[in-house]
Design goal:
By secondary structure, the chain is an alpha+beta fold. It is built from nine helices and 17 strands. Helix content is 33%, strand content 20%. The strands form five sheets. The chain has a six-stranded mixed beta sheet with strand order 10-7-3-4-5-14. The N and C termini lie far apart (105 Å).
């Protein structure tokens, strides 16, 4: 009969086997990626861990050593109850962490600039510089609720929850969102970067080996967040051309009206392709003017820089519906409105918007007259405020 202690040890070992088997199935994609940017980021993780272990391992070893050496039953250990300082020990305690912090700071500084997502790629791999005549593949990404939209302006196609790119060609992502903030993340390709509404965030990366990799949102964004995943296909040029040709067979067109339908919240959306895309759709998404007749943000900012539209823009508002269950801009909704778009066909209004030569008049409130220059009891003039007052 086995002894109880031996039986208990065997039972614990058997209970640990499922956990060990689960760990063996872990995908080490972060430390074994398919892109040069992600590989350099993985090397940073390893270097940082090794540098920190230079402190952690000696400290853990010294804890065990001190506990054993200065145990109560060890009569040979030196007993010095009045000891309180050692210059040599202080130098070791403070110098080693300081050197490690300096090394980590230097690595962080250089890698922050070299791996800046805004910075165009200078290489696609070790000893593989990007040729001067190579044009990056532009992929416009929109984070929707709860799916991903990819627009390829050069190829004229769009996809939902699927993207592809040729190996060895730089990719320039232009990333935005429709409503709430998400985080665009393909661990095999590069680090995560946020997708925010009314903003555009670039990301430069490149695949260096073929395969099918997982992409997802790394930022919680609501009920359907867990299903906000897509497949990223890294293929050769022939495979990419075939993928584009397959998308063009879909026949559907992604225009503004179709986008408003696609934007509705949905979960577990299947992969779908669009054979053509309306020109400038991504810019309208970023400038929040996909709705018919809505003024884009860059247009509004340009008008504001010129002093606004004055009385002409006072009633330039239209009804907006945005209730998360219906397509925006398709029906009226009391209490909500947006600034209307200014068309080139409206010649009188456009003429009033143009800045006049010479000195511009001061801006006033819409429909109000110029304030009087004469001082009043409640509104003293600027001149009266600048005179020195007698001291009381």
């Amino acid at each position: 009969m086995p002894r109880p202690k031996l039986l208990s040890a065997r039972l614990r070992a058997m209970l640990a086997l499922p956990a060990f088997a689960a760990l063996c199935g872990c995908n080490m994609i972060v430390l074994d990626p398919a892109g040069d940017v992600a590989r350099q980021q993985g090397d940073l993780v390893i270097a940082s861990v090794l540098l920190m272990l230079l402190i952690i391992i000696p400290v853990m070893a010294l804890i065990v050593l001190f506990a054993w050496r200065y145990r109560a039953t060890n009569t040979e250990a030196t007993y010095e109850p009045d000891w309180d300082h050692s210059t040599s020990l202080e130098l070791v305690i403070w110098a080693a962490p300081l050197l490690i912090i300096i090394c980590l700071g230097a690595i962080t500084w250089t890698s922050t600039h070299l791996l800046d997502p805004y910075r165009p790629l200078s290489r696609t791999g070790p000893n593989q510089p990007v040729a001067a005549n190579v044009k990056p593949l532009e992929v416009q990404v929109v984070a929707l609720d709860w799916k991903w939209l990819f627009i390829y302006p050069e190829q004229g196609i769009a996809t939902v929850n699927e993207m592809a790119a040729p190996v060895g060609r730089p990719i320039r992502f232009r990333i935005s969102a429709s409503s709430v903030m998400n985080s665009f993340y393909i661990p095999a390709l590069a680090g995560q970067i946020y997708a925010m509404p009314a903003m555009e965030t670039p990301l430069n990366a490149a695949f260096d080996k073929t395969g099918v990799f997982q992409g997802f949102s790394a930022n919680y964004s609501g009920h359907g967040f867990s299903k906000m995943r897509f497949k990223a296909h890294a293929v050769d040029q022939a495979g990419f051309d075939a993928w584009v040709a397959e998308a063009k067979k879909a026949g559907a067109t992604l225009d503004r009206a179709e986008y408003l339908k696609l934007e509705r919240p949905s979960e577990g959306e299947p992969v779908r392709h669009y054979a053509s895309v309306e020109t400038g759709l991504f810019d309208r998404v970023t400038n929040m003017c996909v709705e018919p007749g809505k003024m884009c943000m860059h247009q509004m900012m340009a008008l504001d820089a010129q002093g606004g539209m004055g009385k002409a823009g006072l009633y330039n508002v239209r009804q907006l519906a945005y209730d998360k269950t219906g397509a925006r801009g398709t029906h009226s909704h009391d209490g909500k409105s947006f600034v209307g778009e200014i068309c080139d066909e409206d010649k009188p209004l456009m003429a009033r918007m143009q800045p006049k030569p010479g000195k511009l008049a001061p801006l006033t409130g819409a429909g109000l007259t110029m304030p009087s220059a004469k001082p009043t009891p409640t509104a003293p003039s600027v001149a009266s405020e600048t005179r020195p007052r007698p001291l009381s």
